[in-house]
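Case study: Protein LLP homolog.
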Amino acid sequence: MAKSLRSKWKRKMRAEKRKKNAPKELERLKSILRTGADVVMEEVKEVATVLPAKEALEKQDDCKMDVDNKRNKKTLLDQHGQYPIWMNSRQRKKLKAQRLKGKKKSKLPKGLAW
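Here is what the predicted structure looks like once written out:
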């Protein structure tokens, strides 16, 4: 989609507004950190445990999520014969046709049984 003049103008004005307000915002953040840094940290410690970075990295382990249902990679069926919820009916029908095509065997031609 092409960029309209209006959207270009709005983007330009937002950038100028950010430039104008940046010093005020920086001062506001610095004042918050100067006055109440200890108070803020005390509130955070009450709510959650604060760990140093090294301990947090050591504590992190590579655990994988346990998945209860096992799916066949080729047919995408789970152990109960159900397709995934995101699959639409056309895809299900196509996979089912492929699966049944392999199962069919040629029948012996009917003839006179003597």
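For the exam, be able to explain this: Residues 41 and 53 are 16 Å apart (CA to CA).
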